[in-house]
Amino acid sequence: MIVVLKPNLPPEQVEKVIAEVAKLGYEPRPIHGIVQTVIAAIGDETTHQSLETLETWPQVEHVHRVQKRYKLVSREAKKGMDSVLKIHGQEIGAGKKFCFMAGPCSVESEEQLMTTAKAVKAQGATFLRGGAFKPRTSPYEFQGLAKEGLQLLAQAAKEYDLGIVTEVLSERDVELVASYADILQIGTRNAQNFSLITEAARSGKPILLKRGMTMKIEEWLLAAEYVLAHGNPNVMFCERGIRTFETYTRNTLDLGAVAIIKKESHLPVIIDPSQGCGRADMVLEMCKAAVALNADGILIEVHPNPAEAWSDGQQQVDFNLYAKLVEELKPFVTAVGRPL
Ligand code: PEP
Ligand code: MN
User: Fold this and answer.
1) Measured between alpha carbons, how far is 79 from 139 in angstroms, rounded to an integer?
2) pLDDT, tens digit, 9 for 90 and up, residues 89-126
3) What is the pLDDT, as a whole number, of residue 44?
4) From 184, 191, 278, 322, which residue has the greatest number of CB atoms within 10 Å?
């Protein structure tokens, strides 16, 4: 920590701060300038009491952290290597095969899910996404088929040999959802629900951690740190757009955040262009960007008839568009040197 003192402090006031720094368990190394003193406080910021509260002292101008607040998710924790998650016979991360996760926003019926699973499998998807528990803004909107939805996911996944990605909305349902899912999705509205994240982490299932729609990148990294800190190394970040002033898109897909997460963390990153833009006509472009950014996969909403979807119809692509999208994306994937 670096403690910057106010200008022109009398020496006895400087000594008071130095003594407090030492009392809080740090080794104070003062640097006396002509106008101001700066105290370098040597110690592990993650195990010591934080010195940031010293900003309440009248002698102190600023306290700066030197260490990052997250450890296990950081690149340094893996000595610069990328993590590879092994899920349902697939490897995700570290330049391995680009991962296609696709399926409807909500599981609606057997026919809807089976036809979608067949269509996405035919285009090389390895994971079937589908919500059985839906976080809806209005309580009067479709809330998901719950257990029945999970059973349909299991049936479709078995038939077409796909892994299952599905959201868990509440701590109460972690055990149930984990008994069906290969990947537990933590949605944007729960991205800082630390008791849910902890419970999901303890299930031992890989976690797809969406970015909270108002979450800063550091907060997102720290939410993932919760999973690792609870002994579960299998977490991937999923950028799904943040809320901004823009109205042409549902959210603003923050591609810069993807580049930063890739620099900061060894964990895989998935892009969700469907929630990210809220428009089916933009999904392909965003997927191309995802590939160029070295993302490890995409999560796309696909529906047999988006106009009749029970949720998020405007952003779901139909089977034809999905097939076209995958075909157009392939040369991009190859161009970045990833196997398909
Ligand atoms: C979804 O994937 O359908 C979903 C609700 O995601 P998010 O939490 O990103 O809104
Ligand atoms: Mn959706």
Assistant:
1) 46
2) 999 999 999 999 999 999 999 999 999 999 999 999 99
3) 86
4) 184
Ligand 1 atom 3 nearest Cα: 105
Question: What is the rounded distance in angstroms from the CA atom of residue 340 to the CA atom of residue 96?
Answer: 9
Q: Give the type of residue at 231.
A: G
Specify whether 184 is located in the same domain as 303: yes
C-alpha span between 289 and 271 (Å, rounded): 9
Residue 102's H or E segment, with its range, is strand 99-103
d(CA 217, CA 265): 11
Domain closes at, from 43, 64, 85: 64
| Tokens at 19, concatenated | 């003594």
**DSSP strand pairing (60-64 vs 235-239):** unpaired
Q: What global pTM score does this model have?
A: 0.95
Looking at the structure, tell me whether residues 56 and 165 fall in a common domain.
no
Give the helix/strand (H/E) hosting 5.
Answer: strand 2-5
Atom from ligand 1 closest to the CA of residue 299: 2
What's the chain's average pLDDT? 97
243 and 121 housed in the same domain:
yes
Looking at 41, 64, 87, the residue that finishes a domain is 64
Looking at ligand 1, which residue's alpha carbon is closest to its atom 6? Answer: 187
Element (H, E) at 164: strand 163-167
Closest Cα to atom 8 of ligand 1: 187
Distance 188 CA to ligand 1 centre (A): 6
107 and 15 in one domain?
Answer: no
Q: Is residue 69 part of a domain?
A: no
How far apart (Å, rounded) are the C-alpha atoms in residues 20 and 297? 49
